[in-house]
Amino acid sequence: MTLDVELGSAGRIARVGHVVRGCLLCEAAAVLIAEQAPAREIEGLLRTGAGVDAALRDGSSFPWPELEMFAPVRDVKSRHRCVGLPFEALVAALHACAAPGPK
Questions:
Q1: Within 1-79, where are the H helices?
Q2: d(C-alpha 37, C-alpha 31), whole Å
Q3: Residue 103 within any structural domain of the chain
Q4: The domain spanning residue 57 has which CATH number?
Q5: Which of 7, 32, 88, 103 registers the highest number of CB atoms within 10 A of its CB?
């Protein structure tokens, strides 16, 4: 899973690109991030991954209504990581963007 983030102005995401070599759940989550992340604030996106994990684990609400498509995965714990991996990659990419030094 590779996820690239292009930062825009005012602490928002301009674009997200991704390459997934995984299952369809992982691909679907990455596509949803690419569609939903642009124009969102970075701080909110950093919290989204934890929100997805919690929603899968304990049945709380997903952070984005579009993520409700993953509700059936709650009952299949072995697939939680499939949905969560793109969000982990998003958080890592955002932290890498914020880190000082060459990009």
A1: 24-36, 42-58
A2: 10
A3: no
A4: 3.90.1010.10
A5: 32
